Amino acid sequence: MSLAALPLFVRLAGRPVILLGEGEAAEAKRRLLERAGAGIVDEQAQAALAIVALADPDDAVARLRARGILVNAVDRPDLCDFTLPAIVERDPVLVAIGTNGVSAGLAAALRQRLERLVPAGLGALANDLAAARAHIRKRWPDGGERRRAIGAAFGGPLDPLADHAPGAVARWLASADAPARQFVRIALRSNDPDDLTLREARALALAERVFHRPHVPQAILNRARADAPRVACDAAPADPGGGISVDLGFGA
After folding, report:
1. Coil, helix or strand at residue 48
2. Under a CB-based contact definition with an 8 Å cutoff, are residues 119 and 161 in contact?
3. What is the pLDDT of residues 8-30, one digit of tens each?
4. According to the model, what pLDDT value does residue 179 have?
5. Which helix (H) or strand (E) holds 219?
6. What's the whole-model pTM score?
7. Where a domain ends, among 56, 83, 110?
8. Domain with 22 in it
9. Boundary (domain end) residue, out of 75, 95, 118
């Protein structure tokens, strides 16, 4: 299954963005662009992005596209080169929810749910991790070991959806050990990735490598980390390697 769009985070501070239109829709986009630090300019200016909030946007979109500018047309997903997601902000963490323009209301409803789930202190946790980056690299110089240690922390003492007292990262570093080698066998019950248990989904998300039978569907393999190698094989390997490995197949 291909992605309908590739999500990107674009730094707009000090960069020009064309905004066309007036009224509530245009003002909402203006406020969002100003929060991102963008310089709002008219149609004649040079810019890489444009937002069009006009009742009849077709001609303006065609002119802008002819100049190689990527366009968002408010309430016209058929004319959009990019869409603007609903955002949950815990600076510097941003959680973006998009529906590829299909339903802004659905994205807003998901944002409201996530606002209640994502703790207010998540940004502080992220900043503490950034400040400890050198210490973390020194503690685990091997990249694979480092990823496994951090992954294990997020599944336990640094759970990103839990509230943490100040100093949580320092306490983790003072007590953390390299996570043990793990090999997880998952007997699939269906082709639907939503039938994975929470434990199975977490193992896939943390796995260093994924072994699977050739008939395991791509939708399930997509639940693994993008950088984890996928190895199609007829049987689980005798030696899967260090760190966390997952073996996927149907039945026992």
Report:
1. coil
2. yes
3. 999 999 999 999 999 999 999 99
4. 62
5. helix 218-221
6. 0.71
7. 83
8. 10-83
9. 118
